[in-house]
């Protein structure tokens, strides 16, 4: 699948998609990569305990402390225990507020810089219509970010927009939404190094974890607005 944008060669943003098997904890996937990079977990819409009792056991066995440098959570954790669990995986935890979160201190959106990439985080219930590509593109421009991480639809998406990327990690528990009851649990792991980010999509399908890989390469000549 070719997700390359229509841009001049000097400003080309490239995507390549391939599959790898998931049979081991996240940290072991570094063995597939040439360098020791920065690992960023994107996760959200857990809805524990109202729509799901817990993370799938196979996800919990993969998400182990000490392997991840940053966590971006799109929101709808719903209870403090989920916050504490994520914090136990990685102390550098960034959360935006979903409409069902008890903690009103979570911001509506947030930006941070990791390496050469500026990332934006927003739950997504503020986007009208929900998941609308044009509205998400506008938010990405407003936040002035290379990568926008958003949620709410409970369905994984990753696609290019101009010189950047929009990622929705889906629902980590497979919680139903007002859009669909048929939800595969999923989360995203980003491996960031220089001008390259490798996006691993972990999805639980028929009791097995499937992993897809998306490569995002930003050329040195690509100039972001920031």
TrEMBL record:
Keywords: Protein transport, Transport. Signal peptide: none annotated. GO terms for cellular component: cytoplasmic vesicle; cytosol; retromer complex. Pfam families: Metallophos_2. InterPro entries: Calcineurin-like_PHP_lpxH, Metallo-depent_PP-like, Phosphodiesterase_MJ0936/Vps29, Vps29. One of its GO terms (biological process) is retrograde transport, endosome to Golgi. Residues 40-193 form the Calcineurin-like phosphoesterase domain. Belongs to the VPS29 family. This is Vacuolar protein sorting-associated protein 29. It comes from Musa balbisiana (Banana).
């Amino acid at each position: 699948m070719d997700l390359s944008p229509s841009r001049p060669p000097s400003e080309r943003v490239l995507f390549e998609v391939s599959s790898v098997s998931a049979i081991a904890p996240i940290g072991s996937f570094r063995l597939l990569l040439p360098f020791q990079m920065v690992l960023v977990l994107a996760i959200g819409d857990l809805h524990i305990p109202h729509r799901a009792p817990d993370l799938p056991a196979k996800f919990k066995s993969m998400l182990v402390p000490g392997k991840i440098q940053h966590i971006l959570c799109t929101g709808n954790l719903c209870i403090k225990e989920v916050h504490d669990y994520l914090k136990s995986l990685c102390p550098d935890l960034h959360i935006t507020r979903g409409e069902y979160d008890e903690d009103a201190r979570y911001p509506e959106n947030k930006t941070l810089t990791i390496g050469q990439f500026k990332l934006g985080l927003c739950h997504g219930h503020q986007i009208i219509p929900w998941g609308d590509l044009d509205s998400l593109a506008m938010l990405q421009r407003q936040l002035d970010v290379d990568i926008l991480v958003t949620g709410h639809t409970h369905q994984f998406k990753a696609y290019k927009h101009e010189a950047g990327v929009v990622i929705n990690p889906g629902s980590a528990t497979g919680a139903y939404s007002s859009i669909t009851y048929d939800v595969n649990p999923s989360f995203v792991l980003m491996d960031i190094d220089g001008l390259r980010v490798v996006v691993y999509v972990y999805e639980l399908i028929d009791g097995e974890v499937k992993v897809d890989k998306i490569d995002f390469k930003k050329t040195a000549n690509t100039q972001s607005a920031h």
